[in-house]
Amino acid sequence: MNTDIWQEDDKKYIWHPATQMKDAESFAFPVIERGKGPYLYDRVGKEYIDIISSWWCNLLGHCNAEINAAVKKQLDTLEHVIFASFTHRPAISLCRELTPLLPPGLQRYNFCDNGSSAVECALKMAFQYHCQTGHPERQRFMCLAGSYHGETIGALAVGSMDLYARLYRPLLTEAIHIDGLDCYRCPYGEQRDSCNCACIEHAEAAFARYGNVTAALIIEPLLQGAAGMRIYPPAYITKLRRLCDAYGVLLIDDEIAAGFGRTGTYFAIEQSRVSPDILCTSKGLTGGYLPMSLTITTEAVYRAFYDDYETHKAFVHSHTYAGNPLGCTAATTVLRILQRDAVLETASATGTYLHAQLQASLGNHSHIGEIRHIALINALEIVASKDEKKPYPPSRRIGFQIARQAMKRGLLLRPIGDVIYFNPPLNIDRTTLDQAVAICTDAVHAVLGYR
Ligand SMILES: *Cc1c(COP(=O)(O)O)cnc(C)c1O
């Protein structure tokens, strides 16, 4: 194995996120030296296509010249300042420019520094809102089967994936999990495009039972990323919004993965033609440059906290790096590029192209169950048997094997179990995508054979 002193010392010191460190014994982690557009380069000059946008956050390519220039300029002006009772123009500009792109009604911004914190902020805000509007009995949260909202204790509690949460259950408050969402294996036999959302019956049952003691329902709109890039129809959210209204439950829209054009619109929930009460965003917000997140809410929620000091209604929630000016500057620059270059329209067309290419190369493979897609995101679900949609035993680590084959060939895949996916920067070019599809196809063939 080809290791160098940096890789040796990496193994000596660093505990990588969500990684079984023993895997490094058989596969040294590439030491990434620089990035350009959709490409990353390691110390020996090997090129990797970053087809997963470095964990879904890199929106407009690495070392984007415009974002670099804006951040450098801000760096020489003001790097950071306390955000409690101080303000600055980068934060104000960001809110000004983002507000017209948000679902109607959202206009009050709370700043945090990562996705999980934005979710924590939303949960506390919803809970306190009800306490201060005469409903202290609303202490529960609802979430959807297969949901993922982050890794901190509060966010894990509204997560529905055993992989992340099972071990910690004794530490977590008990959320109400709504069953139903798995369109690939739909028990009602509906097709995603013509679906009537019969599975809403599970949500109806949950609201009938717990609707009056629930503070908020939290959802990942249209796209359940960590569950394996599962995609579900907009109509389902419209129905959930109606249930929330009927029972006085707030709707928290976790757009951390889906926001900023990943599903074809600025925010995924737009496609359902409804607004949430609280929206969380992060990942693409700064173009994947800096850790920042926003929890944005309505005037109605904000007003429940606005009173004389002695009433103790303030939202006492803070993070040291809240509102960091470098992050705000990167975010504002991203918004300007997205609008000026009509990036979403181009990405949508590129997404159609990518899907056709993947379908032509791998659509007929006997172990690719489906290739689902929304805008540029394409996910391949690998199965042992296509007819029965039967998965491989997890111990075979099929997705992991394919990713390793792809890495050898210069394509950065990070599978979710046996789902491998493309979620590239929105401005990726077709030539790079052709290359990525070819490598992915070779990697699948190397592990699963040609048919
Ligand atoms: C990534 C993600 C989070 C957590 O964000 P972090 O910045 O990793 O804490 C929360 N919700 C969704 C939908 C995500 O994809």
Automatic annotation (TrEMBL):
Its EC number is 2.6.1.62. It catalyses: (8S)-8-amino-7-oxononanoate + S-adenosyl-L-methionine = S-adenosyl-4-methylsulfanyl-2-oxobutanoate + (7R,8S)-7,8-diammoniononanoate. Keywords: Aminotransferase, Biotin biosynthesis, Cytoplasm, Pyridoxal phosphate, S-adenosyl-L-methionine, Transferase. Pyridoxal 5'-phosphate binds at G115, S116, D254, H319, T320. The lineage of its organism: Bacteria, Bacillati, Bacillota, Negativicutes, Veillonellales. It comes from Megasphaera vaginalis. The modification N6-(pyridoxal phosphate)lysine is found at K283. This is Adenosylmethionine-8-amino-7-oxononanoate aminotransferase. Catalyzes the transfer of the alpha-amino group from S-adenosyl-L-methionine (SAM) to 7-keto-8-aminopelargonic acid (KAPA) to form 7,8-diaminopelargonic acid (DAPA). It is the only aminotransferase known to utilize SAM as an amino donor. It is found in: Cytoplasm.
